[in-house]
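RECORD TYPE: protein structure
NAME: SDR family NAD(P)-dependent oxidoreductase
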Amino acid sequence: MLPEACFHAYLHDVTQRAPRSWDPARLPDQSGRTFLITGANAGLGYFASEQLARARAHVILSGRSPHRLTAARDALEARVPGASVQTLLLDVSNSGSIRAAAASVRGGLFKRQRLDGVLLNAGIVHTPRERMTTRDGRELVLATNALGHFVLAAELLTTLSKSASRTWTPRMVWLGSMSTRMGAYDPVDIQLERGYRAWRAYVQSKVVVQALGMEADARLKAAGVPVESVVAHPGYSIGGRTPRVTGVNEPGLWKRVKDTLQAPVSQSKEDGAASLVRALVDPEVSGGEYWGPRHLTRGLPTLQQPSKTSADPEVRQRIWETCERLSGMEWPLARAARLAGR
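PREDICTED:
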């Protein structure tokens, strides 16, 4: 359970705008639009995909396990009759997998020759006790939660920009975390080569994610690219309070009991996904914004204020440049603007 002191400090510190009318069960019609969701085989990613499918979007479920993706697709099609859905193998901790998946999307291997939004959701929540690295030597939590999505967004940027129209601006939504407000994590040692701790690895990776999301929007605007970047967090969303879905979410009795005790400060992952989906499809959301549950850990999605660290322009620029160096990739901003006719 979240410590009570942290919870009340959170309530005191966050500023938010009065919520506009929004019903997660009655989303605006998304017919004709295509969204790619990373980590879509379980948790927040699955329920966000289900909500988009109910709104008649075409949804590309991506994940690293073919068996789990198949189970998620089968569950979604059973729960949403007539859903338009495909699967895509994608391991966001593996740069080769990212580039192969992005090439599949760009190459038109999917039903619709457009991409209207990307939910950068996949990540590690239960971080390893000891520092681990990927095949290319990147710290595993950073690579999975942040760096891989930095590369994926860059690879898909031109595809997104070409889907812009007078009535729709494509979006990328980055998965933030309320944990970033519970400590001043300035990621100078971004790969935690000194003093790795599991909790710090998670929080610091989320500071990086939020900083990238906000810096991305500033750079997209400056380059004239018609794509928005938004950050959203799901509050305190837990599996034991989430509907049972075979092959997707199957908590045991003890998990149900334990998570039910946290009901006053928690919600289901289905409810947590609402903030992510609103950030992705609400026409009133703007690039550079930060969205999360109304009561911080739970509730309907509202506009909120991010942590000072992840919103700091100097921190954002430093993190961006570090991610460029670690990934060996620069975003094709000029090309994206040109292809969009800007």
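COMMENT: The chain has a mean pLDDT of 89.
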